[in-house]
Fold each of these.
Amino acid sequence: FLTLSTGNSYGLSDFYGIRDIIKNIVYVLLFRNEEQLAGATWFLRVIFLINIAYAINSYLINKILKNKKGKNIVHFIISVIFLMFGYYCSKHGRLLCWNLSTFFSSYILFELGYLISNINIKYKHISLIYVICLISFLLLSFISKINFVSLNINQYSNPISLICISLLGFIFTYSIAILIIRYSKKVVDLIV
């Protein structure tokens, strides 16, 4: 079962001593290495680069445009262009240095997250959260059977499946978080 090849995807590697762990943590923080020490460290590099690019894009767009709707449209157009370039890299097996191909593919997910964060999501009926959680899980399970996404190596079926799987993953995780918050308060009340 765990006889797959070692590597970043599976987190299988030789035993590390304390010195190796510290050395690899420093390498990861300097973006010189990727390890499965405590999670997907490739993600740190990609989100760091996305934050820098988003800040630069926001600065330039704010200098040029004053209309908020226009700014959002330009941000979205840049995201789509980056996604198309990332998909090109995915289809032609180009990873680029510093995992930039994953950066290009993931930038739109950051943009979608920003747009979603501006929506005031309210939930009134907890039973609806259960339904949303179940439906998003079932859809995610079904779609991921016919499409694949492996962003650590920038491989995915197509841009639409990347966005759909990512949004369904967000909806599922968000609904689980709402349930945890709701029931953690009840558990704390029982304990205290």
Note: The chain is about 70% helix and 0% strand.
Amino acid sequence: LLANAPQVIVNGEKYDISIKATSLDMKEVEVECEYSIFRREKSDDTHMEAIHKGHTKKSVVLPDGLAPGNYRIEFAALDKVKDYTTGIERIDTVRTSADFTLFDPKAKTMNVAEDFIYTPSTEMDKEHPADIYFMAEHNDITLYWMVIAGDSLIDKGMKRVGNEMQHFRFDYKEEYGDGIALTLLYIKDYGVH
């Protein structure tokens, strides 16, 4: 059993969350799975409560009203296993999971379990500015950034950030050549992240 989910699902755009099951001889088989969606509050969450449950044979459509943030989807399917030494059959539960972030570029904030950085496109030209979104897992941080193109420093800065999504936009300039590099770091409670 294998869970397939994109790392980032942009609100309002197409996505595919699906499962694939194979037999021992690697042939694809159809199985009925139960699934649960959990909101991840911390990167090491071990005790999460399901916020949505359902059944599927192939793919999952996320329920309406999910807030931007980090989630985990877990699939469980029953598997009949035969012990070849005793000939006894038993039923096991096979589980798999995938983590994803539901992202809305219009959101001012979102609850994240770990630092989140997202670029909608890797293209940067006259028609496509570079958009970069960043949300720290911590609140009340000091954020530092530096943007470099080739050997040139284009931008740098520092600001105090509460619980807000940071959006950096850079319009294309010919002197950027092959593109730009953005370095982000932040300080929280004397620790560098």
Note: The chain has a mean pLDDT of 89.
Amino acid sequence: LISRLADARNLRDAGFRLVNEVQRHLGCKEVAIGLRRGRRCRLLAVSGRSEVDIRTDSAQVFEAVFGEALLTGESTSWTAASNRPATEAHRVLCQERRSGAVYSGVLAEGEHEPRWVWVALADQEWTPRQTRFLDAAGMALAGPLRLLASKGALKAIPARPGSWSRKLAWLAIPAAIIGALWLPVPFRVAGD
């Protein structure tokens, strides 16, 4: 999975590669991933689809499940036979997609706050092996996704500066780095 992310052009491409690979590996019905921006978590990719329209009702149901996963901060497995009230969005998604089980979990590494959430749908209840895989993959994939997101932020600066403001932006970055290197750092040397 991590090698698939390394070849991605941007976050959206990484999301599509990730969900399609997880769906293929687990043999489940559908997998979706969302990216947290501010207080909301937006749908980034759904397996088996090349484009995602976040204005549709199904996208909003996925985003509601993402919100529940971010609130709990841990993985949740919900089956059609369950009536737990804390997972209302899971129930709605399960009914809308005609699935037997829904799994949701955050992709977080260490103490970093989670920025990604994924949801997987299956026709039957999740096996312990499948949930362990999703939990372990969530921890392992958070770092590469974070690096890809920061790489994408650097791509926002144009490769060829054309206007004076862009040229100034290109000069400001090295100037800030050089300026930071010249800051005095207090230290003491102690001898025996």
Note: Residues 153-161 have pLDDT under 50 and may be disordered.
